[in-house]
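To close the chapter, one final illustration. This time we ask the reader to focus less on the individual chains and more on the assembly as a whole: which components sit near each other, and how the overall shape emerges from the parts.
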Amino acid sequence: MHTEKPIVAINNVSKSYQRGSQIIRVLEDISLNIESGEFLALMGPSGSGKSTLLNLIAGLDHVDHGSIEIGGVEITILSESDLSRWRIVNVGFIFQFYNLIPVLTAFENVELPLLLTGLTKRERRDHVATALRMVNMEERSRHYPNQLSGGQQQRVAIARAVVTDPAIIVADEPTGDLDRTAAENALELMSRLNRDLGKTVIMVTHDPWAGKWAHSIEHLDKGVLSHDI
Amino acid sequence: MIFKILIRNAFRHKLRTVLTVCGMAIAILAFGLLHTVIDAWYIGVEASSATRLVTRNSISLIFRLPLSYRDTIRRIEGVKIVSYGNWFGGRYIDEKDFFANFAVEPKSYLNLYPEYMIPDDQRIAFLKNRKGCLVGKKLAERFGWSLGDIITLTGTIFPGNWEFVLCSIYKGSEKNTDETLFFFHWDYLNESLKKKSPLSSDQVGFYMIGIENPYMAAEISDAIDKTFKNSLAETLTETEKAFQMGFVTMSEAIIKAIQLVSLVVIFIILVVVANTMGMSVRERIGEFAVFKTLGFRAWHITLLIIGESMVITVFGGITGTLLTFPAAKGFSVAVGKFFPVFNITAETIWLNLAVTLVVGLVAGILPAYRAVTVKIAEGFRRMG
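The assembled structure is written out below.
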């Protein structure tokens, strides 16, 4: 039994979207605690609300009801501007389609989040070099995304996610666009981040094979959670 | 880094950007050229001196004033120099070879116009030779005249063929000095009139008056006009600037039309750039969602989009401004006889720059607003 306060505390969260005159309930009264250093997989069929829940945890969207507390900060009451500032230092993002900026090199993509910190150019360069070394992409730092394979792009995206040293990494279908080998590399990297650096990793996936890399799995179906270990 | 992003984003779709830059360059070129045309219209006003007054017949310019007014005007307090002249309206070879020509009292007239720079020997030659003429440098170049040439004008107001000896060529000391004028001795005209048409002699078309204090212009003008009140030829005295402005006012409708066209040109390019930016932002709405996810705030996104719009307009604006110089030169050659001074002023350059920045700013506002207000999750959905 854990005695420490969870890093993510979700309390009675509901979320719905309006599509035309129709209101679509996506999440229904969700409550979930995620301990620090955990590797959690959120699984479920398409449209089950897992990406919506991930967006809410990452402060990319707002809840209708309930509250989300992360690292002792209730993010549901933060303004858009405060949420942006909070995200810079607290959350790293990994996306299914990598979402690298095509006009920037791998190095520049990783440097992007650091532009919003007070680091000097030299400090930024050191941080980026460390992050790229961690994902074994330092050799290709001057390449543009279209000059990299999918797996390599995802590794750059992982470097970008960790370069600000956030406590939480959120990953939305990180292996969805990769072949098995590249997916394994990406998952291995995320595992290392969790294991070696103590990052809390929350991963959305519909792939049971990818889910096996997590310590625990939460199933979402029609906006309702069911716990599984 | 941000500047690097702006440049790279601006040229991501090279063809689209190059076409927009070309459109912007052409619009700024047209705007600059039209503005220079308007400036050229006002050049007489700009070149006017605050210490010169013009006295003419109060009914109309075509009615003359007696020469005897000269001494009366000279006695009015504050008047320093009195000169006089007539619009001659002579034609050289053909009507298409038009240039302005005046009969003036040469000594006093040149004292009033120190901006006409004449070598001393040529000045003396002109003053000594009653059939001598003084022409501007551009006019002499236009017809290939050189000193000593005999120039014959056919009178349209004063009939007959009038021969002149080119004694002097002046250069303007200022950029806006008209170098296309032709002057000759008023006495030459008057003496001929005494023989051919005595009733028309000893009459002048206008008096040019030099005053000591420009702040006294209104009082002196008033004093001159009061002196000749209720006479057979009442006068109207005004500053040289107001006199020149009277000519410009006659063409006010054309000037307004040119100003309107230049604004329409700018409005069209504003719509074109806004459309380019709108397309560009719509295609990259997901990318802006990524920026927002990484912590970039609304003003960062606004800066990125307006900055990109500015990059496009500045490239176009600078190109257009640079092209304005050769275009103005060509335009000046083509229509030089209508616009004796056709210079691009510093004001036109600054105006081009200001228009460039305003177009860049305004064209980016709506796309920036769209990118800022789209929710992150919605942005990713549009990307996917």
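Chain A touches chain B through 26 residues (CB under 8 Å). Helices of chain A lie at 50-57, 80-90, 106-111, 121-134, 150-162, 180-197, 208-211. With these observations in hand, you are ready for the problems at the end of the chapter.
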